[in-house]
């Protein structure tokens, strides 16, 4: 799990540092909570490198990092939703609430109720982050600075805001991907759909819109989302897939036992797995992971979406 928590913290801070977030958070009544969340995540990030290095020899620290990773994922998802709702408002303002194309794309219900609900989600996730962060002092962690300029890689900003016209133009991308997901592939139970080089909204955002689509949710018995980034370790990825599917696993299981568990769980299920933010180009590692997933025994129609950089 090396640097996974650190990477998520960096992404959350990138979102919270957006000028658009700063400008719109007051209008939405969430400025205070977002500022507190930013301060807390910044404090946590400072000690995460030390924590992730020490976790192998400290079971309590490992457990704390697991909880922290989960709540940071939740924070990232809530911020994505905030992005989505603000963008929806801008689209409605530009194109008008009577535009069928806009209504079909966003399928929004009562906007005021959605706004209050989202504000509550932001407050709730901020409190959860605060509670978990308060326990960091139990581990005597040192502040460390990342020795590589991880955040300076040339890559897509998948959480940036875009012009409303770009969103409308991406409706076709979303629809095409959903069409591919619904297709039954003769001769193979599991097929892979790559999302490469989609601009505007960003590949991750397109994948999330597809992943959360009501038709997709009802079509698949099981959905899993795993962020890969640079740490393409097959054993770690199997663990992350299992955690996404069942919530928790025995961290002491060996790779053979993990593969058996994964096959048992996916057997005869129609599943959707998203492997997000893939950087690794090691063909041998891809072959190993592909062989495992394609041979997992999922029902015909199971799909794997892969988002990666060009």
Automatic annotation (TrEMBL):
Keyword terms, alphabetized: ATP-binding, Nucleotide-binding, Plant defense, Repeat
Pfam families documented for this protein: NB-ARC, Rx_N
NB-ARC domain sequence ranges: 171-307
Ranges where the Disease resistance N-terminal domain occurs: 12-97
GO molecular function term, any single one: ATP binding
Taxonomic superkingdom: Eukaryota
Keyword Magnesium: no
Gene3D superfamilies (alphabetical): 1.20.5.4130, P-loop containing nucleotide triphosphate hydrolases
Database matches in CDD domains: RX-CC_like
Biological process, per Gene Ontology: defense response
Protein name as annotated: Rx N-terminal domain-containing protein
Record lineage: Eukaryota, Viridiplantae, Streptophyta, Embryophyta, Tracheophyta
């Amino acid at each position: 799990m090396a640097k996974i928590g650190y990477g998520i913290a960096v992404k959350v801070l990138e979102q919270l540092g957006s000028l658009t977030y700063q400008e719109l958070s007051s209008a939405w009544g969430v400025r205070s909570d977002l500022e507190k969340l930013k301060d807390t995540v910044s404090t946590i990030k400072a000690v995460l490198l030390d924590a992730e290095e020490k976790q192998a020899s400290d079971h309590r620290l490992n457990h704390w990092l697991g909880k922290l990773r989960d709540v940071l994922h939740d924070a990232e998802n809530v911020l994505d939703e905030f992005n989505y709702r603000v963008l929806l408002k801008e689209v409605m303002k530009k194109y008008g609430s009577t535009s069928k194309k806009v209504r079909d794309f966003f399928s929004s219900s009562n906007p005021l109720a959605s706004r209050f609900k989202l504000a509550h989600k932001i407050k709730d996730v901020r409190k959860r982050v605060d509670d978990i962060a308060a326990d960091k002092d139990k581990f005597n962690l040192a502040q460390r600075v990342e020795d590589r300029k991880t955040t300076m890689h040339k890559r897509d900003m998948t959480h940036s805001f875009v012009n409303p016209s770009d969103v409308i133009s991406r409706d076709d991308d979303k629809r095409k991907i959903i069409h591919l997901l619904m297709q039954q592939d003769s001769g193979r139970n599991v097929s892979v759909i790559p999302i490469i080089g989609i601009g505007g909204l960003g590949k991750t955002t397109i994948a999330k819109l597809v992943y959360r689509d009501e038709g997709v949710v009802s079509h698949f018995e099981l959905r899993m989302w795993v962020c890969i980034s640079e740490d393409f370790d097959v054993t770690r990825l199997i663990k992350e897939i299992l955690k996404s599917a069942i919530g928790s696993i025995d961290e002491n299981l060996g790779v053979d036992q993990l593969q058996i568990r994964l096959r048992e769980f996916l057997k005869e299920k129609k599943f959707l797995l998203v492997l997000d933010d893939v950087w690794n180009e090691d063909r041998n590692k891809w072959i190993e992971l592909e062989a495992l997933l394609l041979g997992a025994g999922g029902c015909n129609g199971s799909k794997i979406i892969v988002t990666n950089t060009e």
